[in-house]
Write a structure and sequence with these properties.
- By secondary structure, the chain is of the alpha/beta class.
- The chain has a domain at about 50-285: Metal-dependent hydrolases (TIM Barrel), CATH 3.20.20.140.
- It is built from 14 helices and 22 strands.
- A 10-stranded mixed beta sheet has the order 3-2-7-16-17-18-20-19-22-21. A 5-stranded parallel beta sheet has the order 11-12-13-14-15.
- A hairpin with a 2-residue loop joins β4 and β5 (about 25-30).
- The chain binds zinc ion (ZN).
Length: about 400
């Protein structure tokens, strides 16, 4: 496929006019020998690298937000919701995991995410093949110190070249702070370690995290919902690489675009752009080319309307018009100038997403909606958003 007439993001601040050729799932800046080449004129659009969501629980995105208070830490939250919302949790769990994984991937695709870090067991290889986005597969993880007593074995079993994810210091009390002490004593604060949340990191602990070369994943809307606050300025400005994550619908406001808006209350647009592109790629230890548009890199692209703003400003103001993953168009907005969506997809079923717009997806969504509605007895809501569709 050849893409013409567009600007592409070079970094958070700059974009340049250039034609792209996509072949075998990769990006090129000069013609490549493909016999039958489709030409896509994207005049008036800006192409960004596909976004990277550094933290999600894909199978938990049909849930409503659950919680009835501000909690001192995530353990208190988890214990309370399993008691207070037992029937709601059971109702959602009746939907097969395979279907819930697809919903989680669809949530990400609708926000321009092309790679996600799953926290919990991965979907099976067969199920991953059916997902419209990439799911990180080379990683180690433990849920948290409290819910994963074998966390240290899991940490030690993770190769150094993989990231090791753990929910840590997800709280504002002494118990949350002490988790960093335990990780430090266990020799687990290393350049591979990715601490998810970290709200309760104290000043002494922050020095260990910096010196250990650890990274953080920031999920501001989840933190505000469960803990009443998120990372303070001292942590945000520390010598710690930070990526943005959505967490799941159990606690988050919505998808990665919603998370960017919440995070923008504390961090400028340019840094946020890095947190969902190049910085996230570095923290997730992705191969070269992820989180940027470069020659020979993966053809994972997010197309948005070009109003002459910088890539970072565009990310905060626009919504996805087209998303390409592995060189293949996975999603197109109904506003996108096409004479017929059937040009792109065989099954052009319009999906209206609350406060976003109407989209066509390559992966047929209607059977998934029907299956979910049949099992749960109600219309699915995806990460809090109502979905409308004809018939
Ligand atoms: Zn989480």
């Amino acid at each position: 496929m050849k893409i013409t007439g567009t600007r592409i993001a070079v970094n958070a601040r700059d974009a340049k006019a250039v034609d792209l050729w996509l072949s075998r799932g990769r990006v090129f800046f000069s013609a490549i020998s493909d016999s039958k080449q489709r030409v896509l004129d994207l005049s008036g659009f800006l192409i960004l690298p596909g976004l990277i969501n550094a933290h999600d629980h894909l199978e938990l995105n049909l849930f409503p937000r659950l919680g009835r208070a501000i909690y001192p830490n995530a353990t208190a939250w988890a214990e309370d919701i399993h008691y207070a919302y037992k029937s709601s949790i059971e109702e959602q769990r009746a939907v097969p995991k395979r279907a819930r994984f697809r919903w989680g991937a669809t949530k990400n695709l609708l926000s321009g995410v092309t790679t996600v870090a799953q926290h919990n067991a991965l979907p099976s290889a067969a199920n991953r093949e059916n997902l419209p986005i990439r799911v990180l597969t080379r990683y180690g993880w433990a849920h948290s110190l409290h819910f994963c007593r074998d966390w240290h074995e899991r940490f030690q079993a993770t190769p150094e070249k993989f990231p090791f994810f753990i929910h840590a210091a997800e709280g504002t009390d002494e118990a949350a702070r002490k988790e960093i002490d335990i990780l430090n004593r266990g020799g687990a604060l290393t350049p591979s370690t990715v601490l998810v949340h970290g709200v309760g990191i104290g000043r002494k602990q922050l020095k260990w995290v910096e010196d250990g070369g650890c990274s953080l994943v920031w999920c501001p809307s989840s933190n505000h919902f469960t803990l009443g606050c998120s990372l303070d300025r001292e942590i945000l400005n520390a010598r710690v690489p930070i990526a943005l994550g959505t967490d799941s619908a159990l606690t988050a406001k919505g998808d990665l675009l919603d998370e960017l808006h919440v995070a923008h209350n504390a961090v400028p647009a340019e840094r946020l752009y890095d947190m969902v592109t190049c910085m996230a790629a570095r923290i997730l230890k992705l191969p070269p080319g992820y989180g940027e548009i470069r020659y020979g890199g993966p053809a994972d692209l997010l197309v948005m309307r070009d109003d002459g703003l910088t890539p970072a400003e565009t990310l905060l103001r626009a919504s996805p018009q087209l998303v390409i993953v592995r060189g293949r168009i996975e999603l197109v907005s109904a506003d996108f100038p096409l004479s017929d969506p059937g040009e792109l997809f065989e099954d052009a079923f319009p999906l209206q997403v609350e406060n976003r717009g109407t989209y066509f997806l390559r992966n047929p969504i209607k059977p998934l909606i029907d299956e979910t509605r049949h099992i749960s007895g109600r219309e699915p809501r995806l990460a809090g958003k109502q979905l409308h569709h004809d018939a």
